[in-house]
Amino acid sequence: MEITHEEDPQSSEIPLDDKDQLLENAVQFIKMTMETKFNMSDEEIKEIMEPIAATGKFWHEWDELKSILSFRLKQVLAEYPESQVDNDVGSQDESLTGETYSELVRRLDEALLSFIEGPPFTLQRLCEILLAPRSLYPKLSKLALALDKNLLVTSTLTRSTAHLPCPSPRSSPRPSPG
Prior knowledge:
This protein is mainly alpha-helical. It has seven helices and no strands.
């Protein structure tokens, strides 16, 4: 007896457009889940990012660190006045690449999230930028170019096995010479 396509429950003949849509829906669901579960204070984020910015090493699972960086990236971009402008195509908020603010955020976030195996080898500089963006880049367009350069790399880092450095006391007196 021959099983026809309609009778075969194992058949996976889904039109290509439907597969693309299913994949896109799955990606959006994962992103939404990651964002809704994220619950960290700015101080906790800085405590994680500062040692990375200082040493270039990371001690956290990449998926956890990636969600922290994604959150901080969106937070930093939202701090610029250009983020408050109307997002209509052709508005003043278009960057040098001709995209709107929301397109810029989506593109940079997707570039960050595209690192699967580990963080970009530019992780240290990325953390430096995300910790003090306004002091380095007063305009959103300049920040966007810097982030672009740091996210366009293909090499990745591996997690450090050394112990996490202890934070130095911020107000400790320096020994006097002599």
